[in-house]
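Task: encode each sequence below as structure tokens.

Item 1
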Amino acid sequence: MTQGPYRVDGRTARVWASDAMAGLARRLGRDPLQRLRSITDCSVWDSTRRPDREALRAALVGQDALLCVLTDQIDAAVMETARGLRVISSISVGVDHIDLDAATQRGIIVTNTPGVLVETTAELAIALLLTVTRRVVEADADVRRGHWTPEARWQIDGYLGKDLAGSTLGLVGLGAIGQAVAARAQAFGLRVLGWSRSGRKVPGVERVSLDRVLAEADFVSLHLASTDETRGLMDASALQSMKPGAILINTARGDLVDELALVDALSAGHLSGAGLDVFAQEPLSQGHPLLTLPSVVLTPHIGSATEGTRIRMVDLAVANLEAALSGQNPLHCANPDVFSR
């Protein structure tokens, strides 16, 4: 789109961005929000601390649109303050941080950024799988601590991991990211089982029941959205039904997994490891028992954390916002029912 600046009630549209993206700008050598600044009256949150609830409510007074990230909790009370809000454009795939029902009732279009982070997130899932199976973090820590000594230069039973080739990977969810993981897994010589609620067929993936995925897979990787049906899917019963010695990978949503039940399954030796990029509460509290388990690799929600992917997410979020302000359908709308209102 080249049109702009956009007008609302005879004035330039007002947009508030909850992140100034200064770090991304330094890495890229350009302002990711330049396009937004050129087509709207754009103000930004310029603190290094994330805006809290009261800061969000205050900042959105008089705004026509919001460009936000997944740590911004946009509930009905926040929207009530922002009575003129027309668009919420989130730089994320998931929109569970936004009350979609409240937005739809108020005629607010909510957009998101699926698709552009598929390959990047799939790469992280494989990276976590490799890191856990080959005990990379544990080995690196021992080298740094000076535990790699002449006396223990090489041990036939040292840092024994698991082979990927010839093993079975179970995918819970076969959307775009699950399919991208499947393609990579096949290159490693993994047999791939898959289950999805839609029942879709994926080349190279044996479609089976969820029970079979859990019972037969050496490694289980989660690729589902957080919904009423999927929250807590991996509870104590599901974890116990996994193959003994299996490994769990989660790059989807933290609330898919009962974390305390996972700690119990790992501590008891039923599962041999886990690689987690997402958690029920983020950031993970410093007293969380997951931190005590050496067989678990933890990363701070970095599934989309590459330069190319992050700027593609911002560009898509801005394009969504621009389309909505211009009266066109955005590329990705999370609450399409809003148009019937």
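Item 2
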Amino acid sequence: MRGVQKGELAHLAVAGAEFAVRVTPRARRAGVTLENGEWRIAVTAPPEDGRANAAVAEALAHALGVAKGRLVLLRGATARDKVFRLE
């Protein structure tokens, strides 16, 4: 992942925290960046059959240093702007 290393943002991994992310599916390179409180996640997966959503959850979990099963998609299943909650 470019931008953020595994577990680098573990201090943000608080149960109940919500993360609003802007997603770029079918990107050339996957990566996670956090600038000025704005999450941007690029994934190489296409936005079909939930593959991009799964890739985004995995990338966010990687950056936070938590299991991807702890992240729940609250809003934005079919949109580029998504909101995840950490259980």
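Check on item 2: The radius of gyration is 11 Å. The first strand starts at residue 2 and ends at 3.
End of task.
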